[in-house]
Amino acid sequence: MSRATTTEGGEHVAPRGDQEARSEEVGQEERKEEVDDARPADAGGEQRPRRGAILVARDDRGRVLLVRQRGGPFKGEWLLPGGGLEDGESFEDAMRREVREETGLEVRSARPAARYDVRFGDFHGDVQLFTGIVGAGELVVGADGEECAWTIVDSKAHPVLLRELYDAKATDLAEDLIGERLARAGIRMDRL
After folding, report:
1. Whole-model pTM over 0.90
2. Is residue 29 annotated as a catalytic residue, yes or no?
């Protein structure tokens, strides 16, 4: 059991052991704040969602440009190209960089279509959806080895992809059906 002491000036001071414990707690809090502040913009975490940007691009045959996810909460799924923001990067800059890295294609034009707060398990994302046009060219395997393809998307596609295509006016599936599929998968995807 620890006891408080009083100094000659009348100040109330805790014994050294208690001061060290409090100092250690404060130090841990300060270090956590420093780590949170030093994280890349897309690191996510308890306080801040992972920020990302994606693109809906269609070719003249109505196919959608898709990338097989190599990591993250939807690993293995075919979804839109895009990814996390780097420090100091805008949503649009990140989208353009990620599309180039994942497909080898340059974005010729793009405009914002929707923004989402996405939650799935421990994942929390703030995702900006763009619609746009990519330049002609050969698709190439991405820097991280992602597969990419121009694909006809049907109702069996991942519900996240269906929601994004719905908001980009690139599918005629009913919004209620897409919402049910998201709920069954345990995914919350709210428009901001």
Report:
1. no
2. no
**Cα–Cα dist 135/12, whole Å:** 71
What is the token pair recorded at 44? 């996510």
β-strands 148-151, 188-191 pairing: unpaired
Give strand pairing partners of 131: 56, 111
The one-letter amino acid at 161: L
Angle between helices 159-167 and 175-185 (to 10 degrees): 150
Closest to 56 (Cα-Cα) out of 92, 81, 77, 74: 81
Residue among 110, 112, 58, 56 nearest 81 (CA): 56
pLDDT of residue 134: 97
> How far is Cα 96 from Cα 53, in angstroms, rounded to an integer?
9
* Residue 87 phi, psi dihedral angles, 5° rounding: -55, 130
Residue among 33, 98, 147, 175 flagged as catalytic = 147
Q: How far apart are the first and last CA of the chain?
A: 52
State residue 43's pLDDT score. 52
Helix (H) or strand (E) holding 98: helix 91-103
φ, ψ of residue 22 in degrees (nearest 5):
-65, -40
How do residues 70-128 score in pLDDT, each as one tens digit?
Answer: 888 999 999 999 999 999 999 999 999 999 999 999 999 999 999 999 999 999 999 99
